Amino acid sequence: MTATPTFDPTSDDQLADPYPLYARLRAQCPVLHDQDRDIWILTRHEDVVRVVHDPETFSSESAVRITAGPESDEVKQVLAEGWSLTPNLTESDGEEHTRLRVAVNRVFTPRRVAALEPFVRDTAEDLIARFAEDGSTDIIEGYAWPLPLMVMARILGVPPRDVPLLRQWSSNWLKLSVGTGEPAERVDWARDVVAMQHYVMALLDDPHRAGEDSLVSSLAQYGIEQRLDHVELMRIVMNLIIAGHVTVTRAIGNGLVTLLENPAQLAALRSGQASAETMVEETLRYESPVQGLFRTVTRETELGGRHLRPGDRVMVHWGSANRDACVFEDPDEFALRTRPGRHQMAFGRGVHACLGAALARLQLRVAIPLLLDRLPGLRLGPTGSRTRERLVIARGFEELHLHWNTPHPREAAP
Fold first, then answer.
1. pLDDT tens, 164-198?
2. How many contiguous H segments (helices) and E segments (strands) does the chain have?
3. Which of 133, 192, 244, 268 fits 172 for a cystine, CB–CB 3.0-4.6 Å?
4. Bridge-partner residues for 387, per DSSP?
5. N- to C-terminal Cα distance for the chain?
């Protein structure tokens, strides 16, 4: 009898390479019950598609939390100084979700996203200029997180000086949401969440501070027209701040490592044989920055031969679905060729498909090739110079040191 594979994406082995395990799960037990976390892991593309297109059976309530269990009294006491974190864009269903989503749909139109490209490019150039002469840097710290967060701050109307605060707050909100950490850490994270809530509420109370063309001003006006109160709008803004940068941050790191480990594909990109758009799509498929999210079963159903009951929690695993050989040819090969994009699930699917996907793609299309162009001889640092995040739902780097060639001082321009 074949032993059931163990799903532990935060273990060293699975952090290094989880994809052989996903292949085993798809073949042997595509609907796996993870007893330690009491969740069902869905690894086949067809099952993931079924779930995300059936929101009545599979609710998005608590979509980010690994467990829907209660918080400690200490965390509750801190959070009581703010407002409820839900419902928000990611963790809502039906008419409520539609009402929240419509509030920001008009901001992410193709025209408005395309108009951001000069700002994205200028911001990326400025960031690169800060470390280009150093010959090495932690590309996550110096580039991958500041770029998308500065773009999101521009959209929202947040002053650039507050971007580091947004990074700290949103990072800790994510860690609090996914249910990780020691009790004392979670209390500190809760304090940051409340601080972020009060910051956003202050912006909404005085939207002129953010600027007439900002998303904050647009949301404030929309709230008046559609009778959304500031708490609902605050949740939208907070949702956008975190969702609008963490995916891009992870995809930049994943994309750079994957390209540098596949020199033939890197050469194809450099020579123009492969387009930046193809590179972005393949990077998102090959190393999905969001590995999956959660759904809660609302009524008895069957999935992959397993009987699921109301209250059961399932993880729709984008990362595994994007490596399913039933859908993608040679799924474990990183190849800059056109694949059936309609099957790629890095940004979700259905009513909860990421509404900022076009903006994320734009940033990746600009950010990665620009680094390759501006940093000659770009290469990975030595063993031990990169550290992956230990999050069940995400795949990215906390730290990623890269090296490149710099002119000898005597050869440098005066």
1. 999 999 889 888 877 778 889 999 999 999 999 99
2. 17, 11
3. 192
4. 399
5. 71
